[in-house]
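Researcher: Quick sanity check before group meeting.
Model: Go ahead. Protein one:
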Amino acid sequence: MRIALPIGAVGVAAAVAAALMTTSAGAATALPTPTVKPAVTTVSQAELTKRVAGGVAGDDTAGETTSKSAQSSSTSSGSVDPKIIGGSTTTISSAPWMAQLWYYDDNGTTSDTSDDIGFFCGGSVVTPTKILTAAHCAKGYDWAKNGAIVTGTTTLPDENGNTNGTVTGVVRQWTHPSYSARTIDNDIAVLTLSSPVKATPIRMTTSTDTTSYKAGTSAKVYGWGRTSSTTQDISETLKTATLPIQSDTTCGNYYSADFIKGHMVCAGNPATGSDTGTTSACNGDSGGPLVVSGRIVGVVSWGVTDCVEKGAYSVFSKVSTYLGAAYAQVDDANMSYTDAKADLFVRNKSTGVAYEKDSKGTSFGARQSLGDWGGVNLVTQTDLNRDSVQDFVFRQSSTGDVYWLRYVWSTETWTEKKMFSGWKTRTRIITPGDLTGDYKPDLVSVDSAGKAWLYPSNGDGTFAARKQIGTGTGWNSYNMVRGKGDFNGDGKADLIARNKSTGAIYLYKGTGNASSPFSARVKVRTWSNTTYNAFDAVGDVTGDGKADFLARTPGGTLYLYKGTGKATSEIFATRISVGTDFKQYDIFG
């Protein structure tokens, strides 16, 4: 039998060019203010402390499975379960992105502790509101209802849940849709925090990274897990250990079919059979990072029982394989704030009233009024400050000024900030996501001469000096340029553009490089102007980790094209109608 490795703590673009350039006669000049607020329940610090204390008192194992292992005879004597044995103590200043994940559920029986669930996992802050961890730490558990995340501290909390770190609640969670508790495959998850933390984030490796996984590469693992195979005691202070990456062949030879090449990576020298001479991740380290050159390359997943069985290695989820799906969660801000599905903004062309339509996966819910947006001629969604609350970038019709509209949790109000002045002649404004590799959503605009410009975000509504994208002036040959998210599954934001003469649809794949943010375009479809006359890209509508696309017919039918992650003519799955009354809307954002 094998078990995962946690432990109980005891031990912006417009639809078409014409629409972008049109200002309605008599349009209102007042700036829009949404009339709805994100739906989130605030958890008190007292409740969070209670959850931490419950987790500290717990002795359960997250994601525990009773499945039989198909291991070789060399490991058949024990179960595989997710510790750092060996290694050395370190401080949070050397790993400021480390997070403690505490879970406690009394199952509604306050006086009966026999059915309580309490456990601990590790995790990594990858943006101010996102924690990367293992799926076995998240699947089947309600982290919004029962979880608490501690950041910014070297030590564990005391038995009363008191800590010198920051305690934060969780508002939503995502686990890889193909995670298997039986095989511990696709063992990766992302938790979204209820408010940003000050901890310095660490980035994930890239989808094309092969160097970090070469045998012999030195990697570091971090955690508060078990420090000995003979006791359940975990480390009161953060520990780290250096482990050499092992080849897939080496891992497969030891673990046989349990080790899934491409999905997993193992590291460490072969265990000696005892604590002496063994350096290994162990129970309680689950969900923590394996780091190479300052980036996460693995997430602590599983290993052998007690972690020191002779010849064994620590096994991690291979982050490069899951970067596309994980990035979609990093960039998953949505208007409802209750899930990881991208929602739709539309404005009625007659009344100027805007509406929010929340995603149900393959359809949209009833519209909710966002108030009067009559004074704008462009709206696009983004999350410029990475607080996981959906922001809006809009352009005022009368002045061409561009504003950032965001929700402020401390005051529970919407506030706007002018970012650019006099952009009336800009034919495109797009907020595709992170184009520079720093996890901060950027902005692209196309000027009247057909030049495209990248504005690298500083994460606060300001931008670094603009950079021209390429040297050409042909971007006005497109009557649609859209993008929010990653269309080809490599963890980098992309763009979709349509040639106004031929109807050819092109994918501009992101590179993550500010000096050359897109690779050469790839033709993926042909959609004529008579087929579709409006488009939108709001991110991952379905919640499957792939960016999706929306297209409207002249008759008003809106189709959802689910992303496939393929940079070919198969980039989208068969279209799905999500409504027939969309002719009334002139702005999709």
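Researcher: Fine. The other one?
Model: Protein two, sequence then structure:
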Amino acid sequence: MGDTLEFNEIYQEVKGSWNDGRLRFSKQNVVYKSSKTGKVDSIPAGELNLAQWRRVCLGHGIKLGTSTGLVYKYDGFRDTDFEKISEFFKANYKVELTEKDMCVKGWNWGTAKFSGPLLSFDINDSTAFEIPLSNVSQCATGKNEVTLEFHQNDDTEVSLMEVRFYVPPSQSDERQDPVEAFAQSVLSKADVIQATGDAVCIFKELQCLTPRGRYDIRIYPTFLHLHGKTFDYKIPYTTVLRLFLLPHKDQRQMFFVISLDPPIKQGQTRYHFLILLFSKEEDINLTLNMSEEDVERRFEGKLSKNMSGSLYEMVSRVMKALVNRKITVPGNFQGHSGAQCITCSYKASSGLLYPLERGFIYVHKPPVHLRFEEISCVNFARGTTTTRSFDFEIETKQGNQYTFSSIEREEYGKLFDFVNAKKLNIKNRGFKEGMKGNIDEYSDSDDDQHDAYLERMKAEGKIREEGNDSDESDAESDESFNPGEEDDDIAEEYDSNATASDSSEDRDDSEDESAKRKKAKKARVVKEKKERKPRKEKKQKDSGGPKRPMSAYMLWLNSSRERIKSENPGISITEISKKAGEMWRQLGKDEKEEWEAKAGEARREYDRAKKEYKESGGGSASVSKKESKKSVGKKEEKKRKSAGGDKDKERGGGNDSFKSREFIETSEESSSDSDHKSKSKRKKQDSDEEEEEAISTPASSEEESD
């Protein structure tokens, strides 16, 4: 028997829904990690006192009970797992895994038993169903009835809203009414939040971004009371998933983010995050509404009766002590501006993206938290509006995509190095290495207490900063996002334009420089045209040759097309192609080899036919036709040239006309706009006259015979 037992795809019941995750039994504890939220539940081995094996909805399940009165239910085991789990429990936990039969008779009458946080309805000592009393939101009584109402869960497709129990009147002369006794037993363990007693402390008029407004926060021992002018929320500490303390980019404010599961609700709106904004300069003196002995006994030195400091420090410190969760802060990432976040946009709203040691969090509208372990790949994409920015896309394993746009181009190098160091799959680079190494699969996804990992990351960052100057990194990022998009010549032209404040001497110098650059550019363009390779002539298709053979897929498609149409009536041609592609991919190796053999035979037949066709003189007709077209084209060009020369002579210009045109074309004084216009106008007139003359000149007898 090994030291641990691990099971994948195990489901945990949470308020009427089954959430999948991973379960591990070790000698020290039982650890379950939810795939949806990344939340880790750990049960110390010494606290286990109950273990039951039951046949349930998704297979076989285990019900675990602790000495502190907590109950955990896991589902999704196979019947073959019973023996090895039973042996492991006996050897390591000293607890016997007993088999428990469930009643499926569906009788209406039974016995209600209260066992810790569970209400079980038993029929003949077999449990028919169990109700976790922590799921009860309200308990109402009637004459002989007790009605239980339940918290709604957004993750469930079908929710149980209420259950009514009929309690018959007692025959004995008991002083307590059995209906009231039943209701009191339910309310003693139910999750009914009642603001009774004094708050531990109160924070007045805190600025809240989500939900928006100014709220008073009253801290009670078991829940948080958010009291505003319009809305009022009571948040149990059991629903707090994570705490984040994030510095604003302006270095003058702080975000305190509380992640909630399930979220708080206001009508149809769900708030998964509670975001508070503090000024760093705001201080407070805080006195807890408890005696010093009670503070020491309850919080074990984490809090004291009288405290003072920054407001955000006091709120985060009190929340950490009451919720008993670590506060996640940014790691060693530092952006181009020196901040620990990146300015970007998500869903048309601007916000801040914080790269953490175990994930990304976006603040604030809407807030998004993505853990590395649920990320499938990331992608760096060009911005849609300008080349001065880029988009950062994150795709999760569930198929959801998050696009953070309008990120400054200078942030690219820093963000790329961070993603690369975290071993994330970068989609547009082909980096296929997954999450490996230093992160325990069962550790909390935002645990920043891993020193070796942090030290290694900091050391790599220091080496990278020493080896690369900031100017070089900027140049690299510019090149990576604008390769060859800006023309150097165009940039020089615009840079050389003189401003209105320049002196006349500077203006003349700049004009001379501009003329020289234009001349050099013109010479370079002419040279490139001369060196440019001639375009390859299009290969003429030989219509008389043998037809090329089909591939194995096309042979199979021709034989299967009618069958696909009959199996899918009304299907379009495009859909037939898609369907055929899917069917071809699903074909077995033997079936594909049959069609590949047919395709090979067709190919060999084509090669034989082609060889015979060439030997019989096939294909020569098209070549001769091509050569005749070339000769005709050359004669036409010769005719146009001779006609143009005769026209110049008839105009009487002779050599003088050629000299004047040559002078106009090569003169260096033609850089002004007027000279350019007159030159182009004269060229156009000459070319038009040449074309007219060539058209009107009758062809020679030799050309007519051709």
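Researcher: One line on it for the slide.
Model: The mean pLDDT is 75.
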